[in-house]
Design a protein that fits this description.
- The strands form 2 sheets. Strands 2-1-5-4-3 form a 5-stranded antiparallel beta sheet, with helices on both faces. It has a 5-stranded mixed beta sheet with strand order 7-8-6-9-10, with helices on both faces.
- The protein starts with 10 loop residues before the first helix and ends in a 6-residue tail after the last helix.
- Helix 14 (about 410-430) packs antiparallel against helix 15, helix 21 (about 550-570) packs across helix 24 (about 600-610) and helix 22 crosses helix 23 (about 585-600).
- It contains 24 helices and 10 strands.
- It is an alpha+beta fold.
């Protein structure tokens, strides 16, 4: 079937084969794929890595992935060992190897070995083999960091978000991915002169990937507010066969529905628990949408689901609305039966078939807010007097609702209030970034001042805290970055208002954390810091561990090690000088602590991350 590696393949056939491969990977960027070259006999230069990586896919390099956390927490050596062990096993067995590290899995597929050349492998990762839970993510965090999971630890929350973004492969999908990797490997090594590999890849794409791993990028583009980003069918004016397969719809969509879980009023839910639960609901609804008529789904930020859909042709307006309402109710029933959670559904206007749906999407999210306000389960945007024209008073009311949601400690209410507030700011600003920035900063200051009146903070701690909240917004260079900075700062303020942390205690603790970040180079004995924070040592120790997920000494050591890393990578200071700058008693204390945290000596770390020699 295959020609030798040196036989020329028709260029048109080659393009068709490459297009078949690209149709699988280009729109599923959450799974990076690499070609790895490994020569175990090659002597390595100082600081050189044993593996050569060639990127074959189109991953989003802005996305945080497991390896970024592993590097941050000093586990690069463990990751390298993980790779080498898997490659050895794949080379020995000449079979595909699956291997797990810190809760995430990788695929290693060996290519035929050629005499005198390095070993070559196809690699895909990382992914999960089951839906992530609070328990599974917490266990992965402990293995990686040695810390206890804590919702107040922003590093852990970021780890949770990263973990929830990884693709989940059911057994059928895993088999399809492994088969695809093998076919790709065969094409790389042998070529394909009769289209048999291409035909099998097409079959995998339509029969397996489309069913278990739908293309959400296309749905996101339909909902995008960017007027220069056309929907996938823009140039042809209709859905092609591969679009129908990729999204699971046969008719151009006309309407957007938005769904959100609603928590019991005034019943606090842990933010990490809410994140994980919402992600599970999102995954289930994206799958369920493919069973519904002419419907496809994607995520609505980290709390809800957005659905593009259309009604049967020939129906009048009243019957079309009835069909949409029934469809919305089926989603609500599905979520309640599977998760025991009540949901609300907002529905935007129906537009012309194939039109950009951002306006319907915006309306659907606004209707979500009105569902909560009016205690409705399903609501169309044009029901109950939702106003089309923007008025500044709307923005003022949205700010008030945001403050109320923070005070109520209800995650669903806060998510929805924040989403509505952001959308109103964007309408008011009309794409002017400085207007968006100033509105967000004013609201953050308002939230903080409300908090201050309830729980005063020392002047120096107050100034440092609010400056830290505002820094990311002030440094942002795009509206998306401004929105991300606002959301992060709002989440932090939401945490320090939580009644479960007894208001004054958490403010004192927040001030203490800021003090440690600014004075880590000083001697900071536990009894003295606890006294300055206004706690007894036992209470301080308990509250500190609960809030950060680690002990006081571990937290302080982590801060000092992070500063030491920067100095090692960017200066020629001696280890003795670095130790003194970072609050370590001696050079020996620095080396011992550094290796305990990162697994490397300071000298080895400097070799890997800078061009400066070790003193």
């Amino acid at each position: 079937m295959h020609k030798s590696p040196h036989t020329q393949v028709d260029w048109h056939e080659r393009i068709l084969n490459q297009a078949a491969i690209r149709n699988v990977i280009a729109l599923r960027r959450e799974l990076p794929i690499f070609l790895i070259r490994w020569d175990p006999d090659k002597p390595l230069a100082k600081g050189e890595k044993p593996l050569e990586w060639i990127d074959l896919s189109e991953p989003d390099n802005r996305v945080v992935r497991p390896q970024h956390f592993e590097s941050y927490f000093g586990q690069d050596t463990m990751r390298d060992a993980h790779h080498i062990e898997a490659l050895k096993r794949a080379a020995q067995t000449q079979d595909t190897v699956l291997k797990e590290l810190y809760g995430a899995w990788d695929i290693f597929h060996p290519q035929p070995q050629e005499p005198g050349r390095p070993f070559t492998f196809l690699y895909a990762g990382q992914f999960l083999l089951e839906n992530p839970s609070v328990t599974s993510i917490g266990n992965a965090w402990r293995q990686l960091t040695g810390q206890e999971p804590a919702s107040a630890n922003q590093d852990f929350v970021q780890f949770v978000r990263m973990h929830l973004s990884l693709p989940v492969f059911c057994p059928d999908l895993l088999r399809a991915v492994k088969r695809f990797i093998k076919l790709w490997g065969d094409y790389i090594h042998y070529g394909d002169d009769d289209g048999s590999i291409r035909d099998e890849i097409h079959a995998l794409n339509s029969d397996e990937f489309a069913r278990f791993w739908p293309i959400r990028d296309w749905i996101d583009s339909v909902l995008s507010p960017n007027k220069f980003l056309p929907p996938p069918w823009h140039y042809l004016g209709h859905l092609t066969d591969w679009m129908k397969v990729g999204m699971g719809i046969n008719t151009l969509p006309t309407t957007v529905m938005a769904i959100m879980p609603v928590d019991i009023r005034d019943e606090p839910i842990d933010p990490v628990d809410a994140l994980v639960r919402n992600a599970q609901i999102q995954r289930a609804c994206i799958t369920f949408a493919r069973e519904m008529p002419e419907s496809a789904a994607t995520t609505l930020q980290d709390y809800g689901i957005a659905i593009i859909t259309s009604t049967r042709k020939g129906k009048n307006s009243a019957r079309a609305r009835l069909e949409l309402r029934e469809r919305a109710q089926k989603f609500r029933n599905f979520i309640y039966e599977k998760f025991g959670v009540r949901t609300v559904v907002g529905i935007g206007h129906s537009l012309a078939p194939g039109a950009p749906l951002n306006e319907s999407y915006r309306e659907a999210v606004m209707a979500l807010h009105m569902c909560v306000q009016l205690e409705k389960d399903v609501l169309f945007y044009d029901e109950h007097g939702i106003e089309e024209k923007f008025r500044y008073g709307q923005l003022h009311k949205a700010t008030e609702r945001l403050l109320e949601a923070i005070d109520r400690e209800n995650s669903s209410a806060l998510k929805l209030a924040c989403d509505q507030y952001v959308q109103l700011v964007l309408r008011y600003a009309n794409q002017r970034i400085e207007v968006v920035r100033s509105q967000f900063l004013a609201t953050l200051f308002q939230v903080f001042n409300t908090l201050q009146r309830r729980t005063p903070m020392r002047h120096d701690a107050r100034e440092s805290f609010i400056n830290e909240l505002a820094d990311r917004l002030e440094d942002a260079r795009s509206i998306d970055q401004v929105i991300d900075g606002f959301n992060d700062s709002l989440q932090r303020l939401s945490f320090v208002t939580t009644r479960a942390w007894r208001g004054p205690s958490v403010m004192l603790l927040e001030a203490t954390l800021q003090y440690l970040r600014e004075n880590f180079f000083e001697p900071l004995p536990l009894p003295e810091v606890a006294r300055k924070a206004g706690f007894s040592v036992p209470v301080f120790t308990r509250v500190f561990k609960q809030a950060t997920g680690m002990s006081y000494l571990t937290y302080l050591r982590t801060i000092r090690i992070e500063h030491a890393k920067k100095l090692l990578a960017t200066t020629t200071l001696t280890l003795e000088q670095i130790g003194q700058s970072c609050g370590f008693h001696s050079q020996h204390h620095l080396i011992r602590s550094f290796k305990r945290v990162t697994g490397l000596t300071p000298g080895n770390y400097r070799k890997r991350h800078s061009n400066f020699p070790v003193e």
